[in-house]
Amino acid sequence: MIERNEALAYFYLGPQREQLFLMPVSMRDWLEEGHLAWFVIDVVGELDTAALHARHPNDGVGRPAYDPEMMCALLLYAYSNGLRSCRRIEASCRTDAAYRLICGGLTPDHATIARFVVDQEQALASLFVSGLRLCAAAGLVDLSVLALDGTKIAADAALDQNRSAAWVREQVKALLAATAASEQTETSPAPEIGLLDVDATAQLASRSGRLARLQAALAVIEAEEAAAAAETEKKTEAAVTEATAGRKLRGRKPKDPAAALARAQADHAAAQVKAHGKQAKRAAKQAAAHAAGRRLGGFAPGPDRGLQQAEQALAAAHAAADGATPPVLRANVTDPDSRIMSTQKGWMQGYNCQAVVTKNQIVVAHAVSQNTNDVELYKPMIATLADTLTAAQITDPVKLMLADAGYCSEENLTAPGPDRLIATQKDHKQRRAARELGTTTGPPPEHASTLDAMEHRLRTPEGTAAYTLRSHTIEPVFGDRKTNRGWQAFRRRGIDAAASEWAFMHLTGNLAKLYKHLQTQATTTT
What residue ranges do the domains of the chain occupy? Predict the structure, then answer.
């Protein structure tokens, strides 16, 4: 007799690749209801996509273009999954059910996707406001506490491609000569013409684009030279004005030897005016005493110490200026808009990317800057925030703005705008100072300086609790973008392209928050 468990047959379930479908297949059956792809398709229908159609007039000629809403949904879904490579997006449109559903079975090639990103640069960036309006309608935009911060994102350019103006002018001259020779002979230029760091064939293939980048890099260098000269002239004029009144100019001494020499000369002139004033006062007292028939008391003044110190500083500045070589300004010839940025891991060729975030990590304002420091970006970001909220039709007032010590300055602490807590020193130093100095209560002292008043507020229990929200409000946003999604560098060159991509990144981040919020609501109601 066969035991029951021995009678069971074991077999494999094999694929039936030759099976014919007797009923037509519906794409709607490929994905379950509530899938991210369906959400993206629905969201694109709610966004203001009118700008996407501006490049496609109804009476246009040529092959029909892909539906802009479909392309936008494709990019939104790809970015939501951390996918930005146009070739990988094209491959997914062939094999992935969600991508095939979004495209309705169409397969736009990678060049088409790339051209769409380039052609619709500003239109895609403008969708951020529409997405923010959807988040506000869902109750996700809470303006009670906002955090401002910046992060450095690499450009699509190498750090070792920064070149001086002399080098760039030499390359431009070589390219123009090669172009002229090519137009005359209608053949490729001889290899010896190429002074560039590429072979003659590659040089010829991308000559116009490379020439444009070189000229843009040269324009950057010339603009920086002009700005530096204007700043030096401004500081020199201020120093001369102060010197005329016998006052030394306050603030740090300039690092540039020529500017430092001009400052030392002005300080020496101020010391001379002050010393002559002292001598004139002494002479007037002596004349008054002589007229009264008495002798002036006290010791005769010795050499003026301030004048001696100014003379020594002037001599040292002369020596430093004589032995110094003029500074060489450089620009990146791959992406002239990018700048050399300092990060915790070293130097980077990239951009300073700013964001303003709510407590539930909805980005409400963003910008891409060439400034290496954050201190000059506080007021522009407050203005950007106001413009974005107005465009999104969000009228709630901002109650409190949080920012780290990188934004701390007298000007930022007193600038118009919402109430703010700006750290006066780095977070670990701020915590150490709180432990050593203890907490404070009540409003700041009446005659406290702006900096002391902010330090007082930060050490109150209310200020400490509020500022503690800063790090876990905005840092997770940057962590999500750069670590979770792998957006460590921009894919396109130029600050406008970087700003468009930065806006699209935050659009997908905000929509991901909206998607999770709607899913939670649906789960709760069921």
Answer: 27-119, 132-156+337-525, 163-286+305-332
